Amino acid sequence: MTQPWASRSLAAVPLIKHLSLLGLLVMAAGCSSLPSVEQISALVTEPNAVTDAAPDDPWQQRYSQALDQGMAAAVATQTAQSASDWRQVQGQWEGVIASLTAIPSSSDRFAAAQQKRQEYEKNLAYAAQIADSKTLPTATVVSVGDGDTLRIQGQDGPVTIRVACIDAPETNQAFGPEASLRLRQLLSTGQPVEVRAIERDRYDRTVAEIYSGSQSVGLQLVREGYAVVYTQYLSGCAATASDYRQAEAEARNARRNFWSQTNPTLPWDFRRGGSSSSATPVPPPASAPSPAPPSAPAIDPASFPACVAADCNCSDFTTWEQAQAVLNAFPGDPHRLDGDSDGIACEGLR
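Below the sequence we write its predicted structure tokens.
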């Protein structure tokens, strides 16, 4: 987690140890305005409320410590990014509030402590709100199919998940069984996971990133060489695309698992009928032409289903010929009818 000014702010803590600490966050309807370093530093010159306390007040030290804790929580609030960071910030504000709440009414610090407590409760509410907004929906693992497919139990019932942005070897392909076993090891039955849903695929599965302990399971499979990056669909993981590419490069260079083969057949090539990488590959002719996509009978575009104006699914077609005609008529496959990029639309209809 980056800390653009944490070092400067923390260095100032001893200087403002006895300050009446700022009401750091001013919130309204979930909005906040966080102070700059200069604004915090300027408070060093404000009047010192603690030194006015009676010297024999046994709660003066508790109050002073609470202000120090509040400053640390303020710094953490400025630098928090992930849901985990914000949960830690939330815990810090809770600790500060507990310290202030413990100061009794008999103390000369009671009134000041109550005022600070009210300010910090706003900060706590803000941190909790942000933490909730960054926390992904949770579910529990029901079962694992192959190296990139699993079943989870969500709030609305069981859901089949296709792990996003990766492609694991098929179960009848070299390292396919190992990939399935590894996913079962990472995601045991009943284990809680976090789900970042991206889209629905043509098999009505939810394409999603799965997180266990804040770690992307798909990214781990790629790093360990049990899956490869599914470049065609990497846009679904745009924020971490570079992490996926780097993980695959490391696994390939280290010849981990799938990449230990001399000339591995990528999963999508294997599904098109390519031979398993366990067989000796036969190099194609130097000038081998690219295979042409299958042709479909000419169909009047007027007979296309209405979904072509928005987004079609394979279920919108009654025949494969109609689906293939739409695929041929719309270069780039905007309707995602050719999931494995082999030029054949809606193979389940053939």
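The first strand starts at residue 138 and ends at 144.
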